Amino acid sequence: MGSVERDAPALLMSTKPSIGHCQAASGLVSTVVATCALTSGEVPVSICCEEPSDYVDWDATGLRVCAQTQPWLQAAEHPVAAVSAFGVSGTNAHVLLRAPSPADSTSWPEDSQILLVSGATEESLRRQCADLAVALRDRRLSLAPVARTLAEGRHHLACRAAVVAATSGEAVHALEELAQGQSAVSQVPRGFRPNRAQETALEEMLRGAHGADKATRGEVLRAVADSYSQGYVSDLSPLWGASQPPLVSLPGTVFATDTYWVGEQPRAQSPESAGGLAGRNASTVGEGLRTRTRLRPADPLVADHRLDGVPTLPAAGHLAVLCDAVRILDGRVPGPGAGLRLTGLSIQRPVVVTGETDVVVRAEEMEDGSVLLTLGYGPSGAPPQDASSVVLEALAAPTAADPVEPGSAGMRPVDSEQLYRMLGRVGLDSRCCVSHGHRRAHRR
Question: Which of 310, 336, 308 is nearest to 392 (CA)?
């Protein structure tokens, strides 16, 4: 880590001693660390390097290991961080990161601007609008740097909204309305293909907007906003001419989290009550203990796992459904002891889901007291065919040993000398060991 105007040793640091080997993500982790160092103005310490190697002529290389967290060595305007990552297969990656030039992002001339906001979902987009409104209000950012950053520094996803505003106050008000659901958002159709003639017209309008009067500029920006909602992404740089506003740090997109595993739910269920992966308790007198659920091709459990393009229940999904069936049928299968053990998992055929598919788990008690769980599947309303099975065994609760009082059951207390003589009679000799004052036994 150094600078363009390098007149002092460049600092070296390694992330691996601090956080371990990150495998394929190691280069990305180092890039994040370098970016944070450029942002904070401090070079982080490279730990576990107390003595630099004697095999390197450090003075000749112009390099130095960063032994403690410290500011950048140069007071230069352009600090630079170089990140190198080396793969065991011979794949090497290198990237240079340069700190942005100091720029005032709060005093840019006020003029009508367009803020482009998008997200993977409507919920994500509205949350971004709320975060942007807070950033504009609290940090008093000018609109032009924010508009350029949103246009050039973000991926433009399918769920979209565009705000045209002449002042920061107008932008904050419009963003808050979007965040609260008072303004509509648009969804770009899947497979959208832009019309080249419309793209050309938008480019000409944007070039003419620079230096235009307020009314003309507003009309152009509203047309760009409408086209953005349809799926177009225009280059906004002509809006600012030769003097481009600086890029600024803005709130990022919060990753959405989805859970596809069995969570904490009530234990045993009554028949027909809702369940988790295994669905519901569908036990009847005639059919016995069983659970039933219905899978569709779009369900997350199968949609992302395909064989020859067909949604298929993964092997771990078989086991997950079987385990959830045990939870649903708890109290109706044996095993109230120390716990349950699943053995003998067998998967005979894949569960393919080309339409609405019923998945049924049957529980049958065996002669040895274990329970055979069988997973079957088939089209809705059709008899299921067996796909996998597992054996459920109850673990016996450990029995506590009865306490034995000294002197009972033929036992008698002995002192240490008596114990050593008894050991000697069976071939063990005890000699005093002065190292710790203990006696050690040695086989003759």
Answer: 336
Token pair 């050039």 is at which residue?
152
Which tokens belong to 34? 């370098």
Q: Would you give per-residue pLDDT tens digits along the chain (444 residues)?
A: 655 445 678 888 888 888 887 777 888 889 999 988 888 888 888 888 878 888 888 888 888 888 888 887 655 567 888 998 887 777 788 999 887 666 555 567 778 999 999 999 999 999 999 999 999 988 888 899 999 999 998 899 999 999 999 999 999 999 999 999 999 999 999 889 999 999 999 999 999 988 889 899 999 999 999 999 999 999 999 998 888 888 888 888 777 666 655 444 444 443 434 457 888 888 887 788 888 999 999 888 888 888 888 999 988 889 888 888 888 877 555 444 456 778 888 889 999 999 999 999 999 888 888 889 999 999 887 888 999 988 887 766 555 555 555 544 455 666 767 767 776 665 555 444 333 334 444 444
CA distance 135 to 125: 15
Task: Please give the helix or strand (H or E) that residue 345 lies within, else none.
Answer: strand 339-347
* d(C-alpha 342, C-alpha 435), whole Å: 51
Q: Residue 419 and residue 425: Cα distance in Å, rounded? A: 10
CB 3 within 8 A of CB 80: yes
Phi, psi of 320 (to 5 degrees): -65, -45
Q: From 401, 299, 435, select the one nearest 359 (Cα to Cα).
A: 299
CB 179 within 8 A of CB 130: yes
Give dist(CA 108, CA 130) in Å, integer. 23
Q: At what angle do helices 214-230 and 196-209 cross, to 10 degrees?
A: 150
Put simply, whether the predicted model's pTM sits higher than 0.85 gets the answer: no
Structure tokens at 21: 């080997």
Cβ contact 356:296 at 8 Å = yes
Q: Determine the residue type at 341.
A: R
CB 35 within 8 Å of CB 99: no
- 3-state SS string over 361-420? EEEEECCCCCEEEEEEEEECCCCCEEEEEEEEEEECCCCCCCCCCCCCCCCCCCCHHHHH
Q: Is the sign of the CA dihedral 377, 378, 380, 381 positive or negative?
A: negative
Nearest-angstrom CA–CA distance, 383 and 202: 59
How far apart are alpha carbons 327 and 323 in whole angstroms? 7
